[in-house]
Amino acid sequence: KFQQKWWHKSVIYQIYPRSFNDSNGDGIGDIKGMIQKLDYLKKLGIDVIWLSPVYESPNVDNGYDISDYHSILAEYGTMDDMNKLLLESHERGIKIIMDLVVNHTSDQHPWFIEAKKSKDNPFRDYYIWRDSVNGQEPNELNSNFGGSAWEYDESTGQYYLHFYSKQQPDLNWENEEMKQSIWDMMNFWIDKGISGFRMDVIDLIGKEPDNLIKENGPKLHGYLQEMYHNTFGKHDLLTVGETWGATTGNAKLYSDPNRKELNMVFQFEHMQLDKVPGKQRWDLKKLELVELKQVLSKWQYALDQEGWNSLFWNNHDLPRIVSRWGNDREYRVESAKMLATLLHGMKGTPYVYQGEEIGMTNAAFDSIDDYIDIETQNIYKERIKAGFSEEEIMRSFYLKARDNARTPMQWSDEKNAGFSTGKPWMKLNPNYTFINVENTLNDKNSIFYHYQKLINMRKNNTTLIYGTYHLLNPEDDSIYAYERILENKKILIVCNFYEHEKEFSYEMSNNSKAEILISNYNNSSLDLKKIKLRSYEAIMYEVKE
Ligand code: TEU
Ligand code: CA
Fold this sequence. Notes:
- It is a single chain.
- The chain is of the alpha/beta class.
- The chain has 15 helices and 20 strands.
- Helix 7 (about 250-255) links the parallel strand 10 (about 240) and strand 11 (about 265).
- The longest helix has 16 residues, at about 175-190.
- The structure holds 1-O-alpha-D-glucopyranosyl-D-fructose and calcium ion.
- It is an enzyme of class 3 (hydrolase).
């Protein structure tokens, strides 16, 4: 029933350019630095790189504020470097997908500079302008980085919309010319030989600010179909939308191939289970495993026959998973491998964020001044004003700030973790002295090799790629056990989510046999009726009846 696609069996690796590898000692990661590490990525076995933005940008939001879609930020290199990265990646069988940030531009983009000049400027309508209402903002829409989504522009006496920082004005997708420029830009990159797009906050482009509609506006899916026809529809590319507002219902709209929109979306329902419902992620709540199972299973079931899931724990906006839901102290290695097994056993395309494969952890900075992220800085001010205590705010940042994921990649125990010979743009996590790539490569039991094995298994195990998911124990609050079934083949995945030991019993016929495909311990149970699980033990079995 399923038409097979190359990205069904691919694993994607996300590079956050600023923090990956610095080749020239200016303290900032760059494209030449990436080229130097392609052999490392090849060794890990990944098929695709998702490159966070490397375009020209004033870097208010680390490249998610683009001032020229057609050129490379000088700090990162040149277009020649970019061409070389594509070439060298392709030589190693690695594809590249680019970040597409088209909900907004930078306020330094020539379109916005023009638009600001006057109300009748030809570019005015590329953005969203409104008059004030009773001397106030046009309405109560808020920015995701705190405060109003409207910023007053003195010179023309109107407000413009920005769902992120005020240096990131929102584009007006009702404007045909604007859309045409976006299609041209996408085709420029497609012609260069990229293999797809990760689409930043794409569920916002159908916004209707006058009706207070941010996500999932009525025209959203129409725009995506237009995009498909005008750009990637003619090519065999990977398209993944970042959609914080995705539900299992609309995920099918995005990812049903017959509708000609996207291949898959990032849904964030599971990543929001450790906050107070309806509140911000800074309002902390403990994760309940039963809820995690409910949500992930709902997504697995819903997209089993229609659409496709993306699988991830981490990206540049999320805290490190081993610190968040694992145990980054006594069981860092075990719990990182457990979380990897749990995720990579599921149906969908897995994403690995740089450093996840070596178990990098959150970095708790002592002072708010060490946090660089504009979101963190804005939220800090907002929360102080709202009366939260400094201590409370910092605690939520230790657990949830985006900078946790953005500290430089830890390559070795040398100066600056081998990331840069100069002064890194951002503080390192001091644990680089023992958590680093060099150590991980020298240890055959490392997290790295566990990921490597999981990634390689997916390439040719059709049960792992296409098997139907089935949750075995919805009520159990410490073990996550599920099966993947394809015709007469069966894979069983059993993960102990916590430190305390527990037993799990799998129901099967007496003559079934189990073979361990991967485990994070030696001598894992082979008796499926009595699987004894040690701290964070995770086992993947092939079950033969
Ligand atoms: O993120 C979208 C987004 O909504 C997050 O910033 C979110 O608000 C927060 O991280 C978690 O609650 C995308 C990019 O991934 C992010 O880096 C950009 O800052 C943002 O869009 C604007 O382009
Ligand atoms: Ca550099």
